[in-house]
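Readers of this paper often ask what the protein records in our data store actually look like. This encoding replaces a full spatial description with a residue-level series of whole-number codes. For reference, a complete record is included directly beneath this paragraph.
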Amino acid sequence: MSLQEEAVEKRLSLYHFSKVFPNYLSQLQQIQSLVQRLLDHNLNENDQLSIEEVKNLRVSLEDKYLEAKNFVETERLSYNALDVSLERTVDNTKNGMESQLSVLRDLREELAERNDRLHQLHLDIADFNEESVHLNTHSTTLKCTKSEWINNVLEDEASFDKLLEYRVFKPVGNGLYSVTEELFDGEIELKRMNQLMKKDIDRLKMDLDDYKQKWLDNYDTMSKIGSIIKGKLNERSNGSEENEDDYEEEEEAIERIKKNDVYESEDDGEERSSFNTDEEEDEEEDEDEYGIEQDEEDIDIADSGADADADVKVEIGENAVDSNDSTGLNEGENNNDGDADQEMNDA
């Protein structure tokens, strides 16, 4: 790199567009002051008016002028380039947006329509609120002709005449009849209902707390009662199993007694004499039938005794059951022995 290029680079590194015009004006001011002192013959020791110094001032002024001129040209070109760039950008944007302009217009129209609907909805809500306030604070009146009342509300003309007699319908002229009614409860009534509901809620809370406290107080007692009932149920279940075993033993004993009676009756029949008369045979048959009936009664008594023993065993305990079972068996055996002795005596 040559010395001239280095000087240019150094100059450019120190060059600022914001100082171009101030430097040029400062150079002009310096030359003007020198010329003014020269004309006034008021030069000082620092003023040098040699030919070389004048040339340097001229070159410096020309340089400052060229810098200012270049600055102006550069700014003009930059602004022109910016304008051209902006114009091209606008043209490109228009060309690119040409296909989307229709979509944007449609969106704008749709937004405008929605805004209109929202505005109308706002007006409708305001009207509804106003009408609601009027219904809550004032009574409502409906006016219709007689035929309209009968066709739309009532079933026949007699009902209309009856309501008119009770002053439910009021004639207002031009063939119209009005009905006035408060469709909604007033503020005072609503407050009263609210107070009643609060009182009911408080009362229910108090009742619930009382019931809860009573339940907690009686919890120990209920637990003891439950344990006692559970123990009784266990005892009854165990007693029922033992009762079934005893009942089976009683049935086996009764079967053995029946078999013994049958064997004894057969032996008695073989020992009877063949020389008995017809009357004696009839008496023997009657006695046999009586003995069979007596055996059946004894069996029924034994069965009822077994049932009674089972009931007593559930209520009292194992000792009572054992005593009753032995008693029932003894009674059955005694009855059977008595029947056998009687048959032997008859024979």
User: Anything to note?
Assistant: The chain is about 80% helix and 5% strand. Residues 44 and 312 are 157 Å apart (CA to CA).
